[in-house]
Amino acid sequence: MEARTGAVRDGARSALWAQLIRLAPGEGRPLQVQIRRAIVSAISEGRLVAGTRLPSSRDLAAALGVARNTVVLAYQHLVDEAILVSRERGGHFVAVSSRRPGPAPVSRHAAGAPDWTARLKQRPSLARNIVKPADWQGLPYPFVYGQPDLSLFPVNDWRECVRAALGALEIRDWTRDLIDGDDPVLIGEIRKRVLPLRGVWAGEDEVMVTMGAQQALFLIAVLLMERGTVVGMEDPGYPDARNIFASREAMLRLLPLDGDGVMVGGGLAGCDYVYVTPSHQCPTTVTMPMARREALMAAAGDHDVVVIEDDYEIEIPAGRTPLPALKSLDRSGRVLYVGSLSKTLAPGLRLGYVVAPAPLIHELRALRRLMLRHPPANNQRAAALFIALGHHEAHLKRLARAMAERAVAVEAALARHLPWTRRRGDPGASSAWIEAPGRDARDLAGRALAAGVVIEPGDVFFAGADPPAAFFRLGFSSIPVAKIDAGLAALAGAARSASGRPRAG
Fold it and tell me: Locate the HTH gntR-type domain: which residues (predicted)?
């Protein structure tokens, strides 16, 4: 009877530990890592307190259905990190204290609580931004811009470079605090292998790495803009750049577009800066031709305007050489060039760079130091190796072929299913700019989402109070070519259900 009671007790105890440490064999992380994370999480959440005895490695392995050595390795790591303590013939015990209870949460209406709304000097959350559904990856037809198709991501090449960055000699370089510096290897590779693709040549002291192109724009704005600074902006244009400049209380002068990009005329007179996206205008995808580029540079010189060139999505048209960047035409140091490695690799990598005259880079480094000192040096070194080994250039060529194939599929599907739309998608772009006359794109996006189709309403790209309603952006970097036709057929169905709901504008 006692033996049976003990067996029942042991079984119940095993079930409890299996509940506490839930494993997901298919998630990609080693099982011993999952066990370690679960134990650390249970300690931090107060479910395992100091002094708690853990099951033997044999018992826990049986409860979780894993090899005993897997548990032994997990326990040993936690002992090495002083999270567990091992006692001879006693087993393993929790060595660290669980999370201490903090103060009781303060009610937002409690007497004496600060009025945070009144204290705010800015309300960034009120700005109009591009919004994507949080679960877009789980939807069947994600026509989402700027997100990767994981089937195109060079997993093995990137893994090779990350592993190489963990070599003893490499670790010696990137574990130290770079203060306001960057990995010199990455700076060198950007100068030698990335910028020349755009016709740009820069010295070591003219390049700085940023946490994506977005941070580069923010640093430039903080350093150069204040109330009354006049900034020319493409309209429609990139909302985040518009919001960044507006946060500095700059005066935004909206510059119209035509089929060659931003129009060069009297609008530049009186501007201190002009922000442009010449490789693929955001969001229309227009590639600015050489004549317009030369005219813009000439006008900038005539009116003493500094050009902020956002090369967020460099041209990667298959089979032809991309046009040189505006920075390559710069003979007087008036172009600030912003680029990104995140768009071609992965947005989550958050690596960009800015090319500017050395005195400005010096100040940008000092400003960046106040924010975060420098982007993680291990990521910088891995990216440097990725470029140095030729993986980046090979990946660009793969992307060029894939985007060209998808662009053809999108055009054919639009002609088949939505022939009444007007669209623009320049070679090498990873999106198309669509006008759906008589439709409200926000209403259409909502109906399309119900059918599993994600599109991006275009009104957010316009700066005016009453933006046109009929435009939307159709990204195709994240959707396989095999799904494009079915996805646009579903979008056409959503458009038919919205046909009676046009909106003015």
Answer: 29-97
